[in-house]
């Protein structure tokens, strides 16, 4: 970055908005897993859309690449600069305002740097619900959620960020601002441009604000932990509960025993909800807008049918909010607990719900053949077919040797996923970790169309280069 550009950037965002000393920049240059690191010419922290537009235009004019970044909680290296030291990290974390909350229209307009939890709290204060929920909600930002089309635990009922978004404000790669902040549920005036930017991981522009859907507040909730004999039973249980609860079934998470063991070992205060060891578990949640919706009776009738069909072998229904939180803590603690066991090779895949049992069996056999003793940590959102299929080394295995086999083992997982008509990225994005491998699993025409869109928006290739699209 030239001295002239550095001065002009400071003129735009003020001295406090530019971080260029190594100590100050360090937190922006490495992802939270410490799996991806880079260097940067500077970190720029604009405080408004106008400042973002000015920064992007200045960088475009100087031929400097821009790496948009939110809470830096991603898992695929999509918000980390490369090692050249010539890129500018554009952090949205100063842009946290809740611009508007329209209860009658059931929408909230927020800036991209708003932390997800703050949006949830703003909605709750107005008697509304913003339903996106995931483990990093206390630090991830709305812009990052949009850039990766985040899913989380409520997709079964509410959908992904694509489904939760009505409008966007985006700074384009040339510095122009596209104002699509419309809170309309019907708008048939041509292409739905916002969908191009959702899931694009900052490669087509910088999302600066969004109009998000709200829903009526949840006033009753029931949570259950169910022991299962096998993955097929999870699919059967899902069908039974859907029949009993309809769209009141808002969460259905699957966890392997290996996942639970890691949490019990490494998360303080974690306790096994059910006596005895079972190979699989489902975490089930029903919710309703009524104060007394009789959800306990609904889940109990569903579980009774599941027991009769052999789809469940034991279960516990949370007696209150504290017990429900403890059950969710088991699910949310898996990722961090697995990191304590050494290298964690993470895979975020999706297959048709009906093919989950086949996916798990085929990958189990192939991975065990490749690495005897490998520990497979499977958990995820069975209601929408999304599994986090993560791998840990055998007990006593060498960290570096296991990391060295990551490409080979990922191929095992991705080959089975592809064979079952699935996707190698369900909700984490491609970033840089899957950028090159996606060419083997995505249709060539899909990639050609994506490259064409990228060329249209960002011909110089300065917006988050090296992410999403293979070279």
From TrEMBL:
Where, by residue number, does the polypeptide cross the bilayer?
none
Q: Where is the FAD-binding PCMH-type domain?
A: 36-217
Q: Does the keyword Oxidoreductase apply?
A: yes
User: Which InterPro entries does the record associate with it?
Assistant: FAD-bd_oxidored_4_C, FAD-bd_PCMH, FAD-bd_PCMH-like_sf, FAD-bd_PCMH_sub1, FAD-bd_PCMH_sub2, FAD-linked_Oxase-like_C, FAD-oxidored/transferase_4, Oxid_FAD_bind_N
* Keyword field contains Cytoplasm: no
Gene3D superfamilies recorded: 3.30.465.10, 3.30.70.2190, 3.30.70.2740, Uridine Diphospho-n-acetylenolpyruvylglucosamine Reductase, domain 2, Vanillyl-alcohol Oxidase, Chain A, domain 4
Task: Tell me which UniProt keywords the record has, alphabetically.
Answer: FAD, Flavoprotein, Oxidoreductase
UniProt family annotation: Belongs to the FAD-binding oxidoreductase/transferase type 4 family.
Q: What is this protein called?
A: FAD-binding oxidoreductase
